[in-house]
C-alpha cells in the first residue's frame, strides 16, 4: 500500500524535474539535514523515505543529533545545511549576531508541565507555582515559556520559585516522581511516558501560550541558494500533507528512526496539542522573541523580523497550489500563511 501512495506522486516528480531544469540545476545538489530522533521531526524522515527530496531534484543526507545545541553548533560551523531546533537556542544565537535565519517550521506546541496527581488540585494557574520546586531543561522551548509565564503571573523566577536546571527530559520526570521537584517542564513524548509512570499533565504549553512556535527550520544566511531552499520547502510541504493523509504509512516510516513503541509514537505524533505546520509563522516567532526577553534569555531590544524569510515558503507553497489547483489542502495553507505572517 505504501508504494501505491508513491505512484500517486508521478505528476509531482515530473513537475519537480521541470522545476529543477528551469532553475539551471544540471546535476542534483546535496543537502545535509540535521535532525533529532523524535516524532516532531517526522517530516524530515517522511520526505526522505517517500522520495520527496529526490523528486525535488536534490540528494538529502539526514544527520542525527542528540540535542538541539549540538545541531545548532554544527549549523553555525557549516557542517550541516539546515536543521530544526527548539526555538530558544536559534533566537539566542540570532540575538548574539549569528548569521542564521528561519525559513519555516517543523512543529508548534508540544510541551507540558507535569506533576504528581495528589498535588495537581493545588495548582490552578502559574501564580500557584509560588514557593514550588520546578525542574526544567535550560534553553528548551518550555523553559522559556515557564519563566515568561511566571513573570506574567507576577512572580520573580529568581526569588519566588526554585528552578532546577537538569540535563534531559527523563531527568525532569524522575525529579518529579521522586519528590525532588514539585513540577516538571517537559515535552513529548516524555509527558506521555510520565503519564504512564503515574504522573499527571498539569498544563499543556499551549494552555499558557496558545499556538506557540517550536522547532523552526534554520539555515545559514550565506549557505545554499534561494532556489534549493524553495525546493527543500516544497519537499517538506509534501511531507506535511503525507503525514496528514497517510497515518499508518507515516508511523511505519518514523518508527525506523524513532525508537518508541508504535502505540506511543502514534499518540505523540498525532497529538491534538501539536501543530505539524511547515509555515515559518512570523507572528509566533515574534511572540516567542518577546517571551524570551521576558524570560531574560535575551536583551529587551532588537527585532527578529529580518531573520525570518517568508518569501521562500510563500513561493514553494504557491508553486504547489498552482500545480494542484483543485486540492483544498494547499488553499488552506495559503489562507493560514496570510493569517500567521501579517506584517
Topology of this structure?
Blueprint: H1 2-7, H2 10-22, E1 29-35, H3 42-49, H4 52-55, E2 58-64, H5 68-76, E3 82-85, H6 88-95, E4 100-109, E5 111-115, H7 117-120, E6 133-137, H8 141-152, E7 162-166, H9 169-178, E8 183-187, H10 190-196, E9 200-204, H11 205-208, E10 213-220, H12 226-245, H13 247-254, H14 262-269, E11 274-275, H15 282-294, H16 311-323, H17 328-340
Parallel strand pairs: 1-2, 1-3, 6-7, 6-8
Antiparallel strand pairs: 3-10, 4-10, 4-11, 5-8, 5-9
Helix pairs in contact: 3-12, 8-15, 12-16, 16-17
Number of strands: 11
Rg (CA only)? 20 Å
Specify the helix fraction band.
Answer: 40-55%
Describe the main β-sheet briefly: 6 strands, mixed
Q: Strand share of the residues?
A: 15-25%
Rounded mean pLDDT score: 90
Give the CATH H-level superfamily of the largest domain.
Periplasmic binding protein-like II
CATH arch. level architecture of the largest domain? 3-Layer(aba) Sandwich
As for the CATH topology of the largest domain, it is: D-Maltodextrin-Binding Protein, domain 2
Structural class: alpha/beta
Report the CATH C-level class of the largest domain: Alpha Beta
Q: Globular, elongated, flat, extended or rod-shaped: what is the shape?
A: globular
Number of domains: 2
SSE arrangement, N to C: HHEHHEHEHEEHEHEHEHEHEHHHEHHH
Ranges where pLDDT stays below 50 over 5 or more residues in a row are: 1-26
Main sheet: which strands, in order across? 2-1-3-10-4-11
Report the total helices: 17
Q: End-to-end distance, in Å?
A: 43 Å
